Structure formats: C-alpha cells, structure tokens
Batch of 3 targets.
Target 1
Amino acid sequence: MSDLVLVTGASGYLAGHIISELVDHGYRVRGTVRSLDRAPKHLPAEVDFVAADLGSDAGWDKAVADCRYVIHAASPFPPSEPKHEDELIRPAVDGTRRLLRAAAAAGVARVVLTSSVAAIMYGHRGRTLTEDDWSELAACDAYPKSKTLAERAAWDFVAEHPELELAVINPGMIIGPVQHAGLGTSVGAIRTLLAGDFPAVPRLNFATVDVRDVATAHRLAMELPDAAGNRYITAGEQLSLPEMARILAGRYRITTRPMPDWVLRLAGRFNAEARGAVRWLNREERVSADKARKELGWTMRPVEQTLFDTAESLIGFDAVTVGLR
C-alpha cells in the first residue's frame, strides 16, 4: 500500500496542486479543511478530508494518524495588511507548532513546510539571496514576519525533536493555472492585469514561479532522503508587473503602460487593493534557486508558458473577460 500524506489547507490554491501532484504519483492523500462542508469538490475523489483549524488543537491528532509524511501548506496570505499583525502571525506560528507536535507524537517521518522567499529577502538589498539568508524582522510587515517566525518556529521544534525530519520550500510569487473559479492572492494580480482594473501597471517586482513546479518541489523534498534539514528557494528571476503585462499583451488586449509610483500611493488612500500593492513598491526579489536545481533536480517552466496558462485558466473559469489580439 502506498504511503499516506497529509496536506494541510487542502482548499488552498497551492495545496490543491500539491494534492494533484501526489495523487498522480501514486500517494494516498488526506487533506485538512476548516470544516467538512468546505471540502473542495474539484480535487480527486479518492482524497480524504479531515476538519482541523490552525487556531485550535482539535482535529490534528486525527489528521496526522497513520501518515508517513505531512506537507504543511496552510497559512494565511491576505491581499492587504491586517489591522493587527497578530491576525497573521498567531495562526502561522501557533498553527505550525500545533501541527508539528501532532506529527511528532504520531511518528510522522518528515514534514515539508511551505515557507516563502518572504522569510529570506526582507532587510537585504543589492545582491542575490540564498537559503543562508533570513529576513530581518525589523524590516518586515505582517506577512513576511508571519512567514519568518513560523519557519523559525519549525526549525526550533525539530531541533528539540530530532526524530522528526523537516524540509522547507521557499517559493516566490506563485502563479499558474487555477483549478476552480476561486482565486489565490497572487493569481489575483494576473487577473487584475487582464481585467484592466487599473489604467496603468504598477511597477512592482516579483520572483515568480509556476504553482505546478512548486507542487513538484514539495514532492521531491518529501521523497529525497538528503532533503531533510534543508530549505529550498523555488523562484525564477525577478520580473516586474509591466514586464508580465508585455508578455501577456502578445496575446491579449491589455495595457502595458507603467504606472508612476505616486499614482499608486494616491490610489492606496482610497482603494484597499492598491493600498496592499504599495507595500511592494521599490522592493527587489533577487533570489537563487540553484540549490533546488542541484539537490532536488528541480526545474521550472518558462515564465511565458506560466503566464499564458494562468490567463487561459482564468478565462476558462469566467474569472475575467479579455479580448484577443
């Protein structure tokens, strides 16, 4: 019988692709959802669902029972800053600890944690960053602080519980096709480009990665013995939103005109989505995925393919209407 893998946050954008990747490779999969009535309908029928919430101890013992591996993909990622940073930090940190305690008690062999380049790049400028770098908390707003503290909490936990192996995936901006009509926060940026919600394109920089490639990285980090004890950046070269728009404009009728920074800041006074985008202005995302390529044998799709596949899926689920060239 194949190994059983628990994937947390099964209704999420990335988790859905991880589950599909695991099922395609012959694993039995269990997913956690906040409540069973919210179990996703688009995932393979053989997936089992268990109710467990990051904010409560209830359900986690049942969730990890009989699992050889756990992939912890659940973590809040809002489109704008919360009123208080603890709205993000507490679920991320406390939820990670809850899961790890349950996994260790159940004899789980390895946990693969979804972190982020946000736990690496804040407070650093002017150079390409690697897995040896950590974000400086003083330079972080709520989201990167939550990712940094949650990942550090995970490493601290396994240092005290060496019987439990840990590997960490640090993705960049995750884009790629959606599996249903709901949108993840990062894919929302592509929908905004296609929909023309703004008259010009904000000059924001991201190290992008295809959601399907991130899912593969999680499976590889779960399977390969030497991945234990390592973090892996999974992201491509820095790409700006205007550059993404120019690629998409080769097929779709969308604007490619860059937006002056002051316009976005002004819009942020009145629009929550714009206000959320302001925090990304003048920020670099220069990271290296060489370690994942060398140690995991991981590869990335061309960004052009990812962008067009993202757009086609959004159009296919009627998430956006856009004219063709």
Target 2
Amino acid sequence: MKKVLFFLIILLQTLGYSQVVGTPYITPPVEVQRLILDQVSVTPSFAFSTRKLRADYLGFAIRLRRSTDNAEVDLTFDTNGIISDNSDAKIAVPGSSGLAVNSTQTLASFRGAATLFVTIWYDQGANGYHGVQTTTARQPVFSLGVAGLTNQYASLVFTGSSKHNVTVNQTMPVLLGSGLRGSVMMLAKIQAGVTTNNSFGYSDTSDNNKRWSVHMNWPDNNNFTYTDFGSSTDASRNFLNDATVGFNKLKQYSMIRSTTTKTVKMSGITKQNNIALSVQSITWSAGSTFGVGLTTGALDTSFNQNGFTGNIPEFILFPEPLTVAQYSLLENNQILFWGAY
C-alpha cells in the first residue's frame, strides 16, 4: 500500500496537478499539497488570504474589530491552516470591552453575536506590506462560511457603495516592476451592481487615464470586467463577466502584465491573451497607494466612485510578470483549494 501511495504522489508531482481539457479538477491527496507561496521562488509584493500561504509564515492572519465594543483581535490560523471559529483571537485593542491586551480566546468566543470588521489584512509575504483600513465606515465585513466549494472558508465581504477596502500604503514603483509590470492571482465572488465597481489598484491623481486597476464588473455595456494596467485607453480592455459567466460564483483570476502585453484568465479559461499594450513606462504622482476592494487615487477622491461588491478571500500581487509555468501552478492551487471552477 505504501509503495502504491508513493508512486501516486510522484505521478501527481510530475503532472503538477494539471487539468486535461474537458475533465474536472481532481483534488490531490494531502501528502502532495504544498502551500501556494512555497510553489514558486518569486517573492510577492504582498499576499493576503484567509488561509495560510507559506510554511515559514508565523504571523497573524487578520485583525478584526467587534461592532459591539470596538475591541480588536489578531487572529491566528487554526491547525488546518485556515481562519475558523477555532482560531486564537489575541486582544490587540480592548475598546470598551474591559479585556486585557494580549489575552487570548477563540474566535467563536470573541465574536458572539457581533459583526466583525477588518482593520488589517496581514501580508504573508516577506515585505510586511499589510492592507490597512482605519476608517470604520470603510472596513470590510469578515464572514465565516462564505467561500469554498461548500462555503467552508472565510472571506472578506465588500460593499461598493460603502467603499469597503484595505489599502497598502506603498507606492506603485515599490509594488510593481518599474511601476508597471506585475501579476495578480486572486479569488473573487462578484455581485451584480447598478453602480460603478472599481475593484482594486490605483488611479493617478494628476491624470485619471493613468491607472493600474480593474473593474471586476462594470455595470454599463452588459457588465464587463475592465483591466486597465497602465492606461484606461488601451485596446482590448474588457471581457464579459455577467450572470452566466461570473456573478455570484467564486472564480479564480490570473492577471499578468508584462512590459508590452497582458494576459487575463478566469478559473483557467483565457479571457485576454498576450494583448499588446501601448504604455511601456509610467511615472506616478507622489503618494500612490494600492487598494483591495477599491481603486484608490483619483477614482475615489476626485470622482467619488464606488468599489467592489462581493467576496474576496485571497489576493496576491507579484512585482513582475509570472511565467506560464509559474502562474499555472498558482492558478491550479487556487482553483483546487477554493473550488473555483
């Protein structure tokens, strides 16, 4: 039996869990599953998730604020490497709770009947570029049991009209290669909206047409996803993402921006492939940031547009375009783990 298991493991490792066209994804046994950031040697600019992403990460998963008394806790991953009711909740800010700083209880005990809001989504990469939201009205809701094939995992829940988001306070040249090149590997469940949906990234405060951002679902023109990686004027900016394709369904998104091209995939299906881009260099205004859940910059401050509506349980940004081999590994991992077919 051990010999059979050994050969099965080697076979799956050799295949890299690849999918044969027309067949369902097969979840590999636990013995061959590796944490997603341990599968490639590229260091992300930042990596957010409600699951553990690399074996050597020993920090917290997320910081949550309780609605009833504004107490805040830092959560650990549980023994299965996810956020659950069994996660330890360490008091970081007591609010009016009377709880002692650094005291610990389970998330289930801390939550009770309260609503939980996200104040920090911790970066599991090496940089410590956390996603932070100090404005209470803009803090995403945290919810258990809303992501995964059987809704077994936790997620951040965003409301676009409330501009829910977390912001990485690092400039675009720090987060992206030459302020332009990069790769997004993420999960999202989009809700249909009737207003603007500026989902992540940054729009320049001096020139709104200079953007590194995405509308996960723009309500005009029959609901398209717009990818503006450097400029809002490039050709081939969008693809259909309506109720038939992506609404209310957890999907995996790979978005790769090189110096001259972009490739976009949704749950393994190519939507845009090696699209030629005219913008090959860009200079950002001082003070650029990166929002997850809202495009920070001009679209927020000058145009007062709304953000993303739906769930995002995982968002990873790399500072360079990943190779096909690299993003395929990560893509398969995300699809398999989250059941995002």
Target 3
Amino acid sequence: MTKVLVTGATGFVAGHCIEDLLAHGHSVRGTVRSLVDPARVAHLRVLGGDLELVEADLTDDSGWPAAVDGVDAVLHVASPLPATPPRDEDELVRPAVDGTLRILRASAAAGVRRVVLTSSVAAINSGHARDDHRLRTEADWSNVDECSPYPKSKTLAERTAWQFAKEHPELELVAINAGVVFGPIQHAAAATSVSILTRLLNHEMPAVPRLGFAPVDVRDLATAHRLAMDSPLAAGNRYICAGDSIWLPELAALLAEEFNPRGFRVPTGTLPYWLMWTLARFDRSLRIGLEFANRPENVSAAKAHGELDWRQRPIRETLVDTANSLIAHGLTKRTFSSARPAGRHPRPVPRS
C-alpha cells in the first residue's frame, strides 16, 4: 500500500483525488490551511479508508517537512484559482511558484519517490496569436510574456518544477496538464470551480459567450493522477488530460436538453463578443473569459491515452452529473414548474 500526500485537500480536484486513492486502497495524508473548522473537511472524513489531515500552507515553510515525512508519493494539486482577475498578478504567481518550490524541496529532502504536479493546458495553449488554432501537445508551452495572470502562474510554476527536477534527478516528476474541470462537487464550497455551469442553470446570463473549452471530468482527472503516480513510464513526462474542443453554447445546449424540461431555463443563444466586452467592464468574472472568446482550445490527449491507458467519459455524462450535484447541494433554482411525462423525451434545443 502506497502512502500519498495530497496538497490542498479541500479543493475540487484534490477531494476527488483523495476519494480515488482511498477507493484503490492507498493511505492518504491531505494538507489543509486550517483544521479549526470541522465543517470544511466533513466531506473528506466520511470517505472512510486510511485518511489523515494535517495543516500546511503554500505561503509558509512550516508544516511541509512533517507533511511529507514517510510518504511515497505527492500529488501537488493546490494552486490559487481566481473567480475574477487579480489586481496584482503576484497574488497568483507567487503562491503558485513559491508553493511548488516549497513542496518539491520538502519532498526531495524526505526522499519522496515521485511528485505528480497538477498543471493545466493554460501552461500550453496561452499567450499565442488569436488566430493560431493549431493542435497543441505536451511539446508546447504558453508564452508568458503575453499571458494573463492565471496561465502565467501555471506556466511559471510548472517550468520551475521541471527546473527543480533537473537539478534533483533522484526525484521523479510528472505533470498533469488539465483542461477546464467539470464534474460532481463533493461539497457546496467546491461549486466555485464549476460556477459557469451554476450560472447557466440559474439563468444568470441572458446568452452564452462563445468560449472554447477542452473539458475534463474531475473523476477522470483524479484517475489520471493515480495512473501518473503508478506508471513507470510516466516519470519525467507531461500529460495533457482534456477532451476535444467544445464551445460553451454547445455545452449550454446539452444542459438545456436535459434540465429545461425539469424546470430550469438554461440560455442557449450566443452572446456577441462586443456585448461580452461591454459587460466585462462591469462584471469582473467575465473579464477572465475575454481571453478565450472565439478561440478553440485545441489540445491532444493522445499521449495520456497511449502511455497511461487513460480514458474519458462522455461530456454529456459529465455535465448531467455536475448539474445534479449542484441541485442536490441546493445551489440552483428552478424558474418554473414542469414535470416530464413518463415515457417521453424532451425535444432537443437547437444549438446556436
């Protein structure tokens, strides 16, 4: 049985990594910034299995030597993810880079065998010309000189990790470059990670921005982390874990087909770019999306499929399961009453 440290245990991805590891018989130690509030970790406590939670913070050296003591592998999942653009990019860049270095230094000193770093396609596909839509692979890197703060933080953190691994060959490093992550939430606070789907279900936007995504189900992403931890082939490699590019209006149409007959009003019309740009002046959450407007997210997961034998579930299953979890946690509102007649299927909503 492998003992695994998972950083940022209360996060959306980390929680599913912990659940997957425990289900496969591993012993897990998870880090959280504070254990003062038991409610923040209640969803982890109920998972069962051999789980220990300890305090450690990305911005502080203390706690990490004890956190990595006696573990065989580390899944470094924790990284700041903003809902709105930061006023200073260092609010994202410094915790991402410095936190990664803290964990790598502690891991190397403790003799940890392998570290799996949760990176992003934002470290591969950002900062390039808007009309450059070529398919990107693990050989590609984002251009940090043209990146907004979040992709810059992910790119610099991953580059820093690879430089550290080069200088410490005894430590095996693997990077998982995830697409936009959807999937069922384990607790209500995790809903910020899938907030775009909550906004669609709650009809909080009149129309849907034409944003390009390469989505991944959080459960499949957790599996990818475990495979990257276990596979002898994975050491020293990056793996894109993301699906085919899809437009947000297409995702909205899939949600509408399933949930509008159940009392929701998911919008399916496309929001023009000029209107999105105008609204973003007043809605800071929209500003992050401007970078992705009218740009497909073309990345290839062929390497993960071939070397890790990693597979993904259909995007419709991911969306339905995500929405059902939001409903179960009371984070959505039906706008009208409707019952689907037995034995009948909803009429498909035309895609815009």
